[in-house]
Amino acid sequence: MVNGHCDEKFSKLKKILEQQISSDFELGASVAVEWKGKEVVNLYGGYRDETKISKWDKDTIVNVFSVTKAISGICITKLVDAGLLDVNEYVGYYWPEYSCNGKENTKVIDFLTHRAGMFGFENDIPQASWNDWYVYVKALEKQKPFVTPGLSQGYHAVTFAWLVGELFKRVEGRSIGRYFKEEIADPLNIDFHIGLNDNQMNRCASITSFDRLDSIKPPIDFIKFIPNFFLNHELINLKKSLKTKHFLKAFMPEPFQENDVNSIDFRSAELPAGNGHGTAAGLAKLFGILASGCSRDNIKIMDKKTLEQATKVYSSGPDSVLFGVKLKFGYCFMLDGNKKTNINFAPIFYKNTFGHAGIGGSVAFGDKDNNLGYSFVCNKQQKSKNLYKTSNMLTKALYEAIN
Questions:
Q1: Residue 192 within any structural domain of the chain
Q2: Residue (of 116, 60, 25, 13) closest to 372 by Cα position
Q3: What is the H or E stretch that residue 299 is in?
């Protein structure tokens, strides 16, 4: 069921992937690890879709959803490194039309850390093609924020695409997808893409078992009726989040269905919040390069001091969208968080790791302490309590192998 290569030191990862696919927990999946500048794991297996006709091959790519935000973060950080973007500047300096209706004091860092108060569309998401970029941009540009920008964290699950994406275009001129291709992916041979062409679509795995985005909401509405003095601090934050209903605004379930995320329209669009497609090997290589000094083959992505700056914690919740969780963010990067062995609705991110997770179960990160790049990608969305089960099993086995 599983092909590819795996250094003996990491043989447990192969056993885990074989187990998860042979048990039908995963349909198709791949895991890759780059360690100290060398690819030590590149395993793949299972099937590209539910017909089980097409096998998952070495060059199969898949949508990794919000892992894409970390790729956007790399591009943003590269602009900072070039002196083109100041994260402490007001967004209106670069994007004047945005500075209205209570958004005047929004800073760039608010966009990067989900503190802009713009985690949803005021009048629901526009009914338009995913390729109609400016329909979405104009809607966000005109509306009021849901909360005062800068004062609280609320995960911008979908709107991140047009907020960070339009800011990037205003500063650099190119879209994030095009910039990443021309400045990073092509020079370094990274198999990851934001916006697919016909040839890339032909090797794409289909997302399966994809539920409405609001399906990840925990079934604990009853907590809203429990007095605060019976609850600890974390549960009080959860209660506040449920009462605000920010989650429903941010995840906007209606346009996201299984047939939509596999459509040509969705795959061909450039949505730097959540429709990047690639291989685990490509992502592991990219994060491995960043975690090992930020350059490879005489090609420098950025100064490693800039990456250090980008992977500091600038916001740590509680997140009003994601049920009061204390998610930590740098420049679009998720930082060290869940380290518990029995919780799988959140991905494991150990100390000094930086990357992102996606709602489909995919995860990618770099680890500067261990010169490590890791990625797990898959095409079957699990229920919320097991969303990151496979990746967390692999992550734990990986760190057992290197420590």
A1: yes
A2: 13
A3: strand 299-300
